[in-house]
Amino acid sequence: MSKWNKNKDHNNYLLCKKVKFYSNNDEAAFFEWIEKIECIDSISAAHDELYLDLVERELNIDDINDLIGLFARYQIELRQLEKYKTEKNKIAFSPWDKEIQGF
Predict the structure, then answer these.
(1) Average pLDDT, stretch 41-53?
(2) Strand 13-17, strand 49-54: pairing
(3) Which residues make Cβ contacts (< 8 Å) with residue 82, sequence separation at least 6?
(4) Residue 103's pLDDT is what?
(5) All residues at 6 or more sequence positions from 91 whose CB lies less than 8 Å from its CB, including other chains
(6) What value does the mean pLDDT of the chain take?
(7) pLDDT of the residue at 102
(8) Is the predicted pLDDT of residue 38 greater than 80, yes or no?
(9) Cα–Cα distance measured from residue 27 to residue 64, given in angstroms and rounded to the nearest whole number
(10) HEC states along the chain?
(11) What's the whole-model pTM score?
(12) Burial level of 99, CB count in 10 A (0-12/13-18/19+)?
């Protein structure tokens, strides 16, 4: 089942802007990866922006690891993940603290 949603209000989302792909297969891998991340409820796009609409629950360690992996690989702004840091999932953030906090 596809996560694409063309008419979604963006309240709880992550923004992927001007994502650079190195080949058609790289782009396909990006979207396949997104489809597998459980905390992403739906995906929508406008111009050069992709919106990853998240589920309405606290993100767990697996969610954070998947998002950090995707964002690091495709050079998407990591700082936007900081608002999802909780006591339960903070261990997943620790190797990435400098990048996420913008240092």
Answers:
(1) 93
(2) antiparallel
(3) 93, 100, 101
(4) 47
(5) 61
(6) 90
(7) 65
(8) yes
(9) 21
(10) CCCECCCCCCCCEEEEECCCCCCHHHHHHHHHHHHHCCCEEEEEEECCEEEEEECCCCCCHHHHHHHHHHHHHCCCCHHHHHHHCCCCCHHHHHHHHHHHHCC
(11) 0.86
(12) middle
Extract the tokens encoding 55.
Answer: 């589920």
Question: Which amino acid type is present at position 57?
Answer: R
Token output for 31: 């979207």
Query: According to the model, what pLDDT value does residue 10 have?
Result: 59
CA 55 to CA 59: how far, in whole Å?
8
Helices 24-36 and 61-73, axial angle in degrees (round to 10): 170
Strands of the sheet containing 13-17, edge to edge, are: 13-17, 49-54, 40-46
Token digits of residue 14? 């992550």
Using CA atoms, how far apart are residues 51 and 4, in angstroms rounded to an integer? Answer: 10
Distance CA 82, CA 30 (A): 22
